[in-house]
Amino acid sequence: MAATFRRVETIDQYSHDELIHFLTSIIPVVTVYDEVKDTADSMAEDAHKKYENKRDSYYRWLTFAIFLIVVGVGVLRVLPLQYLWISLFPICIGLILIPVSLKMKQASETLSKEIPGMEKEVKQLSQGLGQMQEKYGQALKLILSEYRHADQLNYIIEHLRNSDDSFADIAEQYEIEKHVQMIQDLHRQQIEQQQRRSDYEQRTEKLNTVDKVELMHALEEWRSRYEPIKNRNSDLRNIIRQHNENPDDVLREAQ
Amino acid sequence: MMEDFSRSQLIEKLSVLDQDFDALEETDKKKQRLDLAIARCSSFSTSSKVEVVVAFIVLALTLLVCILTSQWNIAALGGALGFFLFLSALIQDTRHKEAQHAVPKLAQAYKQSQESSSDFSEEFNRLESELPSGYKSHFAVQNMLRALLTGLATSPKSAKEYQDICQKRLDEEQQELKYLNQSTSLANQAKSDYYAVKLALEELETTISRLKNDATRLDEENQVLLVHINYYGKE
Q1: A174 lies in a domain?
Q2: Is the Cβ pair B190, A143 closer than 8 Å?
Q3: What are φ and ψ of residue A158, in 5° steps?
Q4: Which residues of B touch A143 (CB under 8 A)?
């Protein structure tokens, strides 16, 4: 990383060619700087999270295994012998789950042993970052952290090579594009939601007009059919009752 | 005041403020981590206590039921459940102790971060007070700094103007986001309306089908009853 460039206070003090040279030289520096920074920020936290997840899984499976075994043993005393399998089944599953949970415990312990080493590594990375800051601090200050990515800087270099635009123009162009892209995305999502709404409204409309009308018609029809049949049924039942017989018994006998 | 600074002075001050904002955000993150760890600890501790109490209740109820019904085979099931709850409480207690180990470390990290924040807080407040209202947020500081660093703005006035443009863009994005949320909520409402109508029609279908079945059953009954009544005439 033997990047050399003229010291300036702000990036617009570079000439067009100097700017291209500066950005090209600074890419490896910012890439390494940001990668190291991101790694240092997330490494220890990720390791802790991984450890906690493994540990949680271990305890969850262990509790479940104990539940199965204990309840299986409890059921053993309650159920008759021919249902022995009902209690043996959870006991077996529970016994299988114990080594599974122990395996998770082992994995979590391995992860926990890695944490101090990782913290040491993070410390070293932070020291490295400090050294880089010392060496390239002035150059890094010229570019805002949000532009310190290789793909973004390459985009700017590409534009610089193809036009007379300044860094400010291209950065602003990038900001405008970002804004326009966001507005377009939001518009697209709005249209999708409006489409979804109108789709449901159309389906509701169909239900409320076509389907509901058809069903109401069918309901009326069956109601008008049902009533006389029901009245006839009560008349017939009354006739049978008048002959001192139970209509339900008559029906049962006929079946 | 801000207007009195030269470009390089303003860059210097805004850079410091930007870093301070980052440090404050980092302190907030550390506080959240600490709160989360404390909440985790207390949740394990509560679970452990609740499980012990429930275990006692289960055992007492089992004993009571066994005495009242004289069916002592139930004791095995109740005992097993109580025993499991005790073991589970023990596990929760172990988790509580393990989770507690992480708290002092996180508290220490938060304290250190807080101390370093308080070291620069006076300077931070002083720098912040030099900015006009509406230009004090991290967002405004970053935008003005970007404009000054890239050369888009060369004076405090133009930096402020650039921040106004950025604020307008942000307002526009937030407005569109508001419209999107409204559209989503209307679409969700239309969806729930659709399912409500669909459910009502399904209930109607069920009623029709019940009527149909009842009518068919009664019709069949009528046939049988009629045949039976015909016998009375013959007799």
Answers
A1: no
A2: no
A3: -60, -45
A4: 149
A65 lies in which domain range? 11-165
Residue A233 identity (one-letter amino acid): N
Q: Is the pLDDT of residue A238 over 70?
A: yes
Measured between alpha carbons, how far is B203 from B208 in angstroms, rounded to an integer? 9
Measured between CB atoms, which of B150, B208, B225 is closest to A218?
A: B208
Note whether B149 contacts A55, CB cutoff 8 Å. no
Would the pLDDT of A92 be above 90? yes
> What is the pLDDT averaged over residues A192-201?
97
Q: Report the SS3 class of residue B1.
A: coil
Average pLDDT over residues A57-79: 89
- A2 pLDDT exceeds 60? no
Q: Are residues A140 and A203 in the same domain?
A: no
Indicate if the pLDDT at residue A208 is higher than 70: yes
Tokens of A148: 């310190």
- Inside any domain, residue A136: yes
Please tell me what DSSP assigns to residue A49: H
Q: What's the predicted TM-score (pTM) here?
A: 0.71
Which residues in chain A have their CB less than 8 angstroms from residue B73's CB?
77-78
pLDDT 10s digits, A21-30: 888 888 888 8
ipTM: 0.71
Choose between A108 and A10: higher pLDDT. A108
Contacts with A116 from chain B: Cβ below 8 Å: none
Cα dist from A199 to A154, A196, B187, B191, whole Å: 44, 5, 9, 9
Q: How many CB pairs under 8 A join A and B?
A: 194
What are the distances in angstroms from CA B149 to CA A146, A248, B3, B167? 12, 96, 17, 18
Residue at a domain's end among A143, A165, A187:
A165
